[in-house]
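Margin note from the TA: students keep mixing up input and output lines. Inputs are the sequences; the output is the structure of the whole complex. Example:
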Amino acid sequence: MENSYIVGKNAIIEALESNTRQFNRILISNNSRSDEKIEKIKELAKTRGIIFQFVNKEKLNQISPENRHQGIVALLSPIKYWDLDDFLEKHNDELTSVVILDGVEDSQNLGAIIRSCVCAGVKGIILPSRRGVLVNSTVEKTSAGAVNHISIIKVNSIVNAVQRLKENNYWVIAADHHAKDNYYEIDYTDMNFALIMGAEHSGISKSLLKLSDFVVKIPMLTNFNSLNVSNATAIILFESVKQKLTKFSKKEGKNG
Amino acid sequence: MENSYIVGKNAIIEALESNTRQFNRILISNNSRSDEKIEKIKELAKTRGIIFQFVNKEKLNQISPENRHQGIVALLSPIKYWDLDDFLEKHNDELTSVVILDGVEDSQNLGAIIRSCVCAGVKGIILPSRRGVLVNSTVEKTSAGAVNHISIIKVNSIVNAVQRLKENNYWVIAADHHAKDNYYEIDYTDMNFALIMGAEHSGISKSLLKLSDFVVKIPMLTNFNSLNVSNATAIILFESVKQKLTKFSKKEGKNG
């Protein structure tokens, strides 16, 4: 089994509960104090027959030099990346939304974006295989396990992926601060959509902007036009959530 | 002069342009290649009579062991924290909003929140002096210099600060995922408001919830109820921005 690791109690609990990962073993520091979450991890591990091993703290530092591991590390299979066509086939008969990250570089940003996507009902995240960050242990930790609740799709070409999405009746929305239209002027409720967010510094490439059906900006109240990319993604996605929930509750009101 | 440092070209440019910080000197690695931003920093430093010094990369690593410093470090005075009463007096005759962070612990989260606040026209951020993170070099870097465009208010007691705000005609809004009301059901346009966001894990303390005029949640489309705190802050703040901009453009339309 190819090996990966995750740290962070929440991330480990989510990975265990999602039942999508193959665990090799869980290592815990022999001088860390137990708590509710550790007990939960132990119990889940027991149920699934996963080895639980006490080790020196140094061993954990060695595996996870950069992360604050809170005294516990899980060794497990890496997440499985999806193929775009498989994803499209799976979600063929329902309204679906995806987020395309055009080269986001910061692991914490990617982790936060994955959380927001899962909360907002987004079904897939498309990442370029050769630029930007992919799912690593920092992403897994900052995603708080959300990475197990969404399809991460790796593609060689974002441009080709956008073309495939368009062929499959997705409307393509690009976020760009030079846009004329505001993100809240789109009706997100009745379509498949793919939201493209650019890299932290360079934004979205021109070829992608050309392919997009909508280019939208997030208007600001000051000239300091510089949102963090995960915050910008959350703002747009939760406008779509709000629209869906508001529409739904109006319909309910009418019928009830 | 008490010394602090910042890394990150954007953060340094913003600090220079804001003219609110006293610079000691700017250190640059003698084998780093120049670029547009470095040239801009040099020019701004020259205009303001700030010493620009070439040093070994090791010297920079020593000053800034944890940050990726991109070959440049500025030594300068720390940001000045505001006193709440001074802040209230300054903004006495205008509608003002502030964000209160009840113990946010992660520097990158604080940096991203500061950016969103500045973009959303929020005038102050209130931090407890003894819990959570304060402004450090990681916060400065991830805030991309936004920290120089907003008043950071340090208080000994968040509860007392909330009471002072209420006495000064602020409406207090707490974000809590157990709330009944949705964040977009509030009219943010016609009031001073203080938005309280909780710490990453523990949320908002009960005493603060009791003091709040509104308790709101961000409704989700899935059961995975776990937004990153900076994303949650951005979602609520930009609902307020949208309301203000929409109201304003409607008024304009009527008059024009």
